Amino acid sequence: MRKNIFTVLIIMAMTVISSCTGNKVYDKYQHTPVSGWEKNDTLKFEVPKMNINGVFAANLGLRINSSYPFMGLTLIVDQTIYPSHITKSDTINCQLIDKNGNSKGLGISYYQYNFDIDKVSLNKGDSLVVSIRHNMKREILPGISDIGYSLSTH
């Protein structure tokens, strides 16, 4: 009887753990320099060849700390599909602070934000290279610690 209960608990735990990752097929973050993210520092994410065809939801992740000086952030996201070399460019206007001065992100001293990017249609065997850079007037942005990119199925 104890063995059966233990087995059921293990199966339930595995189900909960697997549901937390959702349908993500790619999820990676990259650090930006502690001294500040320079305008010409482009972050690149290389998504390996896909095992399936489909339309994938692309998501941008952002982590900042209290030294970030602005209420928003504008990012340019270029997604290039290989081998077709088709590039789609999106401008993401990230609203970080509401009009009352409250963070729209989750956290206390570091804040996590997630922003949707347009969907990406990929065929089996396609790979994707994603380039992300900021498009702010200030050359060096302090307070941004990580930028992330993820793809998930519907």
Short description:
The chain is built from 1 helix and 11 strands; from the N terminus they run αβββββββββββ. It is mostly beta strands. The chain is globular.
Explained architecture:
- The longest helix has 19 residues, at 2-20.
- The strands form three sheets. A five-stranded antiparallel β-sheet has the order 1-11-4-8-7, with no helix packed on it. Strands 3-9-5-6 form a four-stranded antiparallel β-sheet, with no helix packed on it.
- The protein has one helix spanning 2-20; strands at 24-31, 37-38, 43-47, 54-65, 72-82, 86-95, 106-107, 110-122, 127-134, 140-141, 144-152.
- It is mainly β.
- It is built from one helix and eleven strands; from the N terminus they run αβββββββββββ.
- 18% of the residues are buried.
- Strand 5 (72-82) and strand 6 (86-95) form a beta hairpin.
- The protein has a single domain, classed as Sandwich (Jelly Rolls).
- This is Gliding motility lipoprotein GldH.
- Keywords: Lipoprotein.
- It holds the Pfam family GldH_lipo.
- It comes from Prevotella herbatica.
